[in-house]
């Protein structure tokens, strides 16, 4: 047996391999997606990562892989759990280990969570959710039903969101779950029951908080009785092995498909706000649960939205116009550089939240609120200026100096000059003076934070600010690719394999060409790789050879990032070829989709180019069909 090598914070390799072997991908994926056989040992279903009507999501059990030909998501059973549940690699392995009843060993000496506990907590939460839902129809829940009805939520709406009611008796849930085979200890660890045996939630309306795969992670509960002694109008499940408030979003189970297809997410504050939004067609709305929107939530939404160069994603926050709303906006603004999506604010001047806005002014008013969104930095800028007396020059100058650092954060470089003029007009100063202050603020930004995405040039030339002065830090003509961009996941994995496992590629790099890579940084790195002599693939200094003639800091950083990222499994020739084929298929599909409308606009009788275009389409389709046969 191979000697165990322990590294701090890592799962023992043998245990990791056991989890992979015991976690049949068809079973795991099949618990989230309805799969049907299509021959050749493959299964197909509707992709859980984007909206589609025609199944393009394929699972190949013999290879242990899944791949969607519509959105490009692909990987093994661990990466599927990572993406579907928005968890880390280790959390995904732990989830699968519990499912497969594998006791994991760690470098620090033992399992972090009792084996099997995660699955038991999820199972208990599901039974609890069903119990709460049935209790909403009981006579004791009339006050809860009245509350929901007054806010415009009928029985169908409540069923859609799983709204329920916790009985006032105090032990009803404990009795139900113990009868279902759960121990009191398990229920305490799930934060469903207290140590003293009383139910955690009593006499409250209940909202189940689900992950993207509709597994119930925890609950939110609202006070409806005056004699309710539990503190707080809203109370959420305390943190458990499955419920981490910093990385859960209410409504994600219903909104994830719409967020991906619209490339947009709307963040509201409460459960009823999410319900109201979905019922009027704003079906990409979510809310943080019992905590402020933070970095964990930002990462979740960023992974869902991705980053498409020609269609930047949007995250729209709804804030009240009061001091609390302004403070919340400032907190989110501090996270702004974590997004590659554009950030916006939708503020209702009357102060009504989305639920009340729908009640008082109708469905259209709520849709219009989202449509009237303004950039987050403009909202923050306006609120900061409100603190200054703009009738005095010294106060005007102080206002400019307080606000100009915000202008340096603007994502779209082409908008900076416009905002300088707008700011100058709002304050009443010469635009040249404002421009000078912006230049000064830009030059004093901390160099270790790097250039914000919105100040990077996108046309392939050296970076410079819109004021004409070259930024003082080292610059690159290439944008750094977002590691969470789901549209480029196959490209990133393939380039990583080119760097870390070059000897597994056969022939002329498995048929790959630089133009197969859409992102300019990946494409430039592939050109460097292909330029290294083939004999050097076996050299231990391979990565150094790749960077031998590189002068671009982005490529140097990209190589460092990629070479340190883990692979989904131990790479072999089949694994490498699967990713290379994915990349080639994606490019062929893009070429076909670009050619079809051009062919449709061409008159076959009057235009002599039509036969050539038609032959090109047939040739591309034949190549795609040949590649598809390799992954079926």
Structure in words:
The longest helix is centred in the last third of the chain and has 28 residues, at 573-600. Mean pLDDT is 81; it is low at 1-8 and 446-476. It contains 25 helices and 15 strands. The protein folds into five domains: 13-100, DNA Primase, Chain A, CATH 3.90.580; 117-241, Alpha-Beta Complex (DNA primase DNAg catalytic core, N-terminal domain); 249-375, 3-Layer(aba) Sandwich (Dna Topoisomerase Vi A Subunit, Chain: A, domain 2); 387-455; 488-631, DNAb Helicase, Chain A, CATH 1.10.860. It has helices at 13-22, 25-30, 77-85, 89-100, 117-135, 142-150, 155-161, 172-179, 184-189, 252-262, 271-279, 295-305, 323-334, 354-361, 363-371, 376-385, 393-407, 416-427, 431-443, 489-500, 520-530, 542-546, 553-564, 573-600, 610-631, and strands spanning 36-39, 42-45, 57-60, 65-68, 74-75, 164-166, 204-210, 216-223, 234-236, 249-250, 264-268, 285-288, 314-319, 342-347, 374-375. The protein is α+β, with helices and mostly antiparallel strands and 632 residues long. The chain starts with 12 loop residues before the first helix and ends with a helix. Helix content is 45%, strand content 10%. It has a six-stranded mixed β-sheet with strand order 10-12-11-13-14-15, with helices on both faces. Strands 1-2-3-4-5 form a five-stranded antiparallel β-sheet. It has a four-stranded antiparallel β-sheet with strand order 6-7-8-9, covered by helices on one side. The protein is globular and about 80 Å long.
